[in-house]
Specification:
It is a single chain. This protein is mainly α and 807 residues long. It has 4 domains: 10-130; 284-409, Up-down Bundle (5 helical Cullin repeat like), CATH 1.20.1310; 428-600, Exocyst complex subunit Sec15 C-terminal domain, N-terminal subdomain (Tetracycline Repressor, domain 2), CATH 1.10.357; 617-805, Up-down Bundle (Methane Monooxygenase Hydroxylase, Chain G, domain 1), CATH 1.20.58.670. It has helices spanning 2-22, 28-36, 42-149, 153-167, 175-236, 268-273, 278-281, 285-296, 300-318, 329-352, 359-383, 387-406, 412-443, 454-463, 469-473, 485-504, 511-539, 545-560, 562-573, 587-615, 632-647, 653-675, 685-703, 720-731, 734-740, 753-774, 777-783, 785-806, and strands spanning 449-451, 478-480. A two-stranded antiparallel sheet has the order 1-2. The longest helix is centred in the N-terminal third of the chain and has 108 residues, at 42-149. The radius of gyration is 69 Å and the shape is rod-shaped. Residues 236-273 and 776-780 have low confidence and may be disordered.
């Protein structure tokens, strides 16, 4: 057992020694530690083993040294021999090196020069290479400066873009490139500001010169319309010629010719061949340039919003009229020119640019403008009282509408406005013709037209459609029944129709509509203007009976001429009067109304004249006996009536008869009122007799047929009330009156009891007053007691009759 352990220990120590010999000294520590970790006193045995191993190695070293010692001695001997040769060689090498150093010093200097030149050459090549990279950048920047100086901003922006994306990145390490890169944003802002300034100048320029653009566009539209009319006429005749003018308001060419403000259009041929458009009059390049610049800068929306906002402001300024625009046609023309110029420019911008303005934007502007235009025209046209100015305004509106319609703007509301302007035009015409009619009536002599020769007769007939076989058979000189105002009025009515027709031209209306407008306006002239003038004329105080008679004759002839006015309108419009919706002229009713008014005025003036004569009556109501002849005032009145009714021979029979009957009735009524006047307290029988003589003259006048056409004693019946009343007093036939009262066959059927009572009381008071003055009342009572009792009895009976009627 002990022997086995000893063998294992020896084997272990052998392994450790081998490991120490083969292992690096740095790793010996763990190996040695394992010796102390084994059995106790194991290290002593190991030390012993180690000493034995060391002794073995010493013996081997000694054997090796003994084996190589002779060779070492021989090597030392040889080395000593070589030492002398080495020192000799060292001297030779040192000498050779000295001589080589002296010989290479010049070569070294030349070599250093070569090296320095090579470095310079390399630096120069590098510099050239870098400069070749920098020169394009500098050239582009120089080009940018030139473009900015020449105001080629769009090209400058493109150059900046190339500099930023292509050139500067290649040499971005250099300071000057950094400075360039820092300047580019500032240059962009400058370009932006400059282009915006140019745009503002452009907007200001077109605001000032839009009237020139509008004037040119409206002139071209008018020439285009005139040319179309001419072509239509030539086509109807089978001919056609090439158009000279064209409404070329829409174009896509971008040739900026600048603003042409001279009014010299050159020769007529050149003016005919050359058609100026918006871009011929306005330089649009600032808009295009600014649009492109803002597009490149990515700020197009800002530009569009600014442009639209400014144009809206300008639209409001353009639509604001001058305060005195309605005074002259030039004011309206300038107003329309500015508006047309504005929208022609907008239409060009719409089609020449993409999206700067849209159709919706222009439509919005136009709708806003159209409402404002209509309101302005409606207001200002209402101030205009000159029909010529209104007609010129209408022509301007038509050209204005046609011009903008050619550019695609809806103008139906403008043509609707023309109907309102037409009403205003008709009103001004009516006012003008009212003055014309008044002047004609004032200058008329209200006497038949004398014609001394055939030429004079034809002249009158050419102006007025007069046909009368009897008058044509008469020899010259002769007189036509109407006065000078009749042909003048007829002519002026035709002139009015012509004037009204002028407004209907170019309204794009059918012949039927034009015919209807003419007839309605003519009806207004007849029923309102002429009728009013006639009514005012008839009411004038200086118009006497003779003038009124002539007015009735005149209106009769004018009424007969109405059918010729119908034919006149038909010939103008070529619309048959048998058309279903054709309006008829109301001249017949107009002249009938005027004639009836004149007739009524005749009756009134006759009665006024009769009243004037009646006021001259100076009866002596207390006279004892009559003068035996009629009163002077009454004879004068009858003579006046005779001469007046002789003038009535030209009047229609019924008018003269009515006037005569009215005069007699009024005279009878006035005489009756004179007898029954409450201020007249007493009447003598002599005054009754005198009054009876006057009434007899009135009856004689009525029976003499002052106006033909009365049947029997019809005219005398106007005095029947007076006659029966006077007969009752003259005959003193009270018994018959009272006995037959109320009977249809009564002799005094027309005598009212109240009338008889009033007059009887006045006669009774007159009889008593006469008796007192003559101081024979007592004798009267003795001689006429029965008559007094009769009067008292009659009075009582009459009062009872009156009371019975009132109850």
């Amino acid at each position: 057992m002990a022997e086995n352990e000893t063998l294992e220990c020896i084997t272990e120590h052998e392994r450790i020694l081998q490991e120490i010999e083969s292992t690096d000294t740095a790793c010996v520590g763990p190996t040695l530690r394992s010796i102390y970790d084994d059995q106790p006193n194991a290290h002593k045995r190991f030390m012993e083993k180690l000493d034995a191993r060391i002794r073995n190695h010493d013996r081997e070293i000694e054997k090796m040294c003994n084996f190589h010692h002779q060779g070492f001695v021989d090597a030392i001997t040889e080395l000593l021999k070589v030492r002398a040769d080495a020192e000799k060689l060292m001297g030779q090498v040192t000498d050779t090196n000295r001589r080589l150093q002296e010989a290479g010093r010049e070569v070294t200097a030349q070599t250093e020069e070569v090296i320095r030149c090579r470095i310079q050459q390399r630096n120069m090549a590098t510099t050239v290479e870098k400069l070749q990279l920098c020169i394009p950048v500098l050239e582009m920047y120089s080009k940018l400066k030139e473009q900015l100086e020449s105001k080629r901003y769009y090209a400058a922006l493109k150059t900046m873009e190339q500099l930023e994306k292509v050139y500067i990145p290649r040499v971005s390490q250099y300071r000057f490139c950094q400075i360039m890169a820092e300047n580019l944003p500032r240059l962009r802002e400058e370009i932006k500001e400059i282009s915006m300034s140019d745009l503002k100048d452009f907007l200001e320029s077109i605001r000032k010169h839009s009237d020139k653009v509008g004037e040119t566009a409206m002139r071209q539209a008018q020439q285009h319309r005139t040319f179309n009319s001419a072509v239509a006429k030539q086509a109807s005749m089978g001919h056609y010629t090439k158009p000279v003018y064209s409404l070329n308001g829409r174009t896509h060419t971008h040739t900026p010719n600048g603003l042409l403000m001279d009014d010299d259009t050159g020769d007529e041929e050149e003016a005919d061949e050359e058609v100026l458009t918006a871009q011929d009059l306005v330089d649009f390049s600032p808009v295009y340039r600014c649009l492109h610049i803002y597009t490149v800068l990515g700020d197009r929306e800002t530009f569009e919003n600014y442009y639209r906002k400014q144009r809206k402001k300008q639209a409001r300024l353009v639509l604001q009229p001058q305060a005195n625009m309605h005074e002259t046609v030039e004011g309206y023309r300038k107003y329309f020119n500015q508006i047309v110029g504005f929208f022609v420019v907008e239409d060009h911008i719409l089609h020449a640019t993409r999206g700067l303005v849209t159709r919706a934007f222009t439509d919005e502007l136009w709708n806003m403008a159209l409402s404002k235009i209509i309101a302005v025209l409606r207001t200002h046209s209402s101030y205009c009282d000159d029909p010529d100015l209104v007609l010129e305004l209408k022509n301007l509106i038509v050209i204005f509408a046609d011009t903008l319609q050619g550019y695609g703007f809806p103008v139906n509301r403008l043509f609707d406005l023309l109907f309102e302007v037409r009403d205003q035009y008709n009103e001004t015409l009516l006012k003008k013709w009212a003055l014309v009619f008044r002047e004609i009536f004032e200058l008329d002599n209200y006497s038949p037209i004398p014609v001394d020769t055939e030429e004079e007769y034809k002249l009158v007939v050419s102006r007025f459609p007069f046909h009368d076989a009897e008058i044509e058979k008469q020899d010259f000189p002769k007189k036509l029944p109407m006065s000078q105002s009749v042909p003048q009025i007829y002519t002026q009515v035709k002139e009015f129709i012509y004037a009204s027709l002028k407004f209907s031209e170019s309204l794009h209306r059918s012949s039927t509509e034009i015919d209807d407008m003419l007839r309605k306006s003519t009806n207004l002239l007849l029923t309102r203007t002429l009728s009013s003038c006639l009514q005012n004329l008839i009411k004038k105080p200086h118009i006497g009976l003779t003038e009124l008679v002539q007015i009735i004759i005149n209106t009769t002839h004018l009424e007969q001429a109405c059918r010729y006015l119908e034919e006149f309108i038909t010939n103008i419009t070529n619309v048959s009067p048998e058309t279903v919706h054709t309006t008829r002229l109301y001249g017949l009713s107009t002249f009938k109304d005027a004639r009836h008014a004149a007739e009524g005025e005749i009756y009134t003036k006759l009665n006024q004249k009769i009243d004037e004569f009646i006021q001259l009556a100076d009866y002596e109501w207390g006279m004892a006996e009559s003068d035996g002849r009629a009163s002077g005032y009454l004879m004068d009145l009858i003579n006046f009536l005779r001469s007046t009714f002789q003038v009535f021979t030209h009047l229609p029979g019924k008018v003269a008869q009515t006037a005569c009957m009215s005069a007699c009735k009024h005279l009878s009524t006035s005489l009756m009122q004179m007898l029954l006047d409450t201020e007249l307290k007493q009447i003598s029988m002599g005054a009754i007799q005198q009054f009876n003589l006057d009434v007899i003259q009135c009856e004689l006048f009525a029976s003499s047929e002052p106006v033909p056409g009365f049947q029997g004693d019809t005219l005398q019946l106007a005095f029947i009330d007076l006659r029966q009343l006077l007969d009752l007093f003259m005959v003193w036939d009270w018994s018959t009156y009272l006995a037959d009262y109320g009977q249809p066959t009564s002799k005094y059927l027309r005598v009212n009891p109240a009338t008889a009572l009033a007059l009887l009381e006045k006669v009774y008071r007159g009889m008593k007053d006469t008796s007192k003055k003559n101081n024979i009342f007592s004798q009267f009572r003795k001689n006429d007691r029965d008559k007094q009792k009769l009067i008292e009895t009659v009075v009582k009976q009459l009062r009872s009759l009156v009371n019975g009627m009132s109850s």
